[in-house]
Design a protein that fits this description.
It is built from 11 helices and 8 strands. By secondary structure, it is mostly helical. It binds zinc ion (ZN) (3 copies).
Length: about 325
């Protein structure tokens, strides 16, 4: 059986799992769809592998061999095939484009679904199907030069299109509801737009309230879970800045979110100069030396770390 046929079968089975009323099949739906997408990618690498190379491009190990003419050929070895990271490296080197951020979101949901989410229903995985739809459609059209509707078959294509449409509609209704609230900073609104329900993982977070976001109740439109602003603001803002925090830790630079010196919650967005938990701002410029106060040194006073140390020393004398 060809890799392409395996890929299309896996996606089709995943969509059948999704359509089933059996909740246990939700997890297998996410697994099958993700596996199907990776197989589509492998199919492309297989197509591009030179003849006689033992499908070098899909093998993790590729070794050079000298043939009868004395030329060096790169040959695929062993049974281990490429993983997501290998595929990404090879695609980038071959100039094949994939929306990796979207793929990463699918992969993360697939990993999280078994460990973190206690409530699951078909609505919870709408975003995964909608993301998958976009990746599958674009990859088949742009990289495989095929017609996704024909390859997948009308029935499965229609499921993907319909889910995507429903999801996009609900998501924009959620975003509108969030955007109509008053936030301490636009950044926390953006963070909530990207936030996922802690119960079911759905990205459909909305609210029926008006006015101050800090007073509002937020509702997951997939599972109905309700949370108050203070329950989710911290997590939302830290997840939103997770990548920047990782880069700051790895390469140096300002930590994007620090503990608020006024309320103690880890929700102070440094570059915005505001805590999304209590809405207060700390001093960012030292009144004694005029220097900018770095994230680690902001406090409920108005001195940098050095000056507050000096002042304490003078006072002690
Ligand atoms: Zn939920
Ligand atoms: Zn605060
Ligand atoms: Zn100072």
């Amino acid at each position: 059986m060809s890799i392409l046929k395996n890929a299309l079968d896996s996606i089709a089975i995943g969509l059948e799992d999704f359509e089933s009323s059996d909740e246990r099949r939700i997890i297998s739906s996410t697994r099958n769809i993700f596996a199907g997408i990776l197989l589509l990618f492998k199919h492309k690498l297989c197509e591009l592998s030179p003849e006689g190379s033992d499908e070098a491009l899909i093998k993790q190990q590729v070794l050079p061999e000298i043939d009868a003419t004395g030329a060096v050929n790169w040959i695929g070895k062993g049974k281990k095939t490429v993983d997501v990271k290998n595929i990404k490296d090879r695609f980038e080197s071959l100039d094949i484009s994939v929306d990796w951020k979207r793929l990463e979101r699918i992969n993360k949901y697939r990993n999280d679904i078994e460990h973190y989410y206690s409530t699951l229903n078909n609505d919870s995985i709408q975003q995964l199907i909608s993301d998958s739809f976009i990746i599958i459609r674009d990859f088949i059209a742009d990289e495989l030069k095929g017609d996704p509707k024909i390859l997948l078959g009308e029935k499965y294509w229609k499921i993907l299109v319909d889910v995507n449409e429903v999801y996009e509609k609900e998501k924009s209704a959620c975003n509108e509801a969030l955007e109509s609230l008053n936030f301490y900073s636009d950044e926390i609104c953006n963070a909530l737009i990207e936030y996922h329900c802690s119960e079911c993982g759905s990205g459909l977070l909305g609210s029926n309230d008006l006015g101050e976001a800090a007073e509002a109740t937020f509702i997951c439109r997939a599972c109905g879970n309700e949370s108050h602003y203070e329950d989710i603001a911290n997590d939302a803002v830290n997840e939103f800045y997770a990548y920047e925090a990782y880069l700051a830790h790895k390469d140096g630079g300002d930590t994007p979110v620090v503990d608020c010196p006024l309320c103690g919650h880890g929700a102070y967005i440094f570059h915005e100069g505001i805590c999304v938990s209590c809405g207060d701002s700390a001093a960012h410029e030292c009144v004694r030396c005029g220097c900018g106060i770095p994230p680690e040194e902001i406090s409920d006073g108005s001195l940098c770390g050095y000056c507050s140390h000096m002042v304490a020393k003078i006072m002690a004398e």
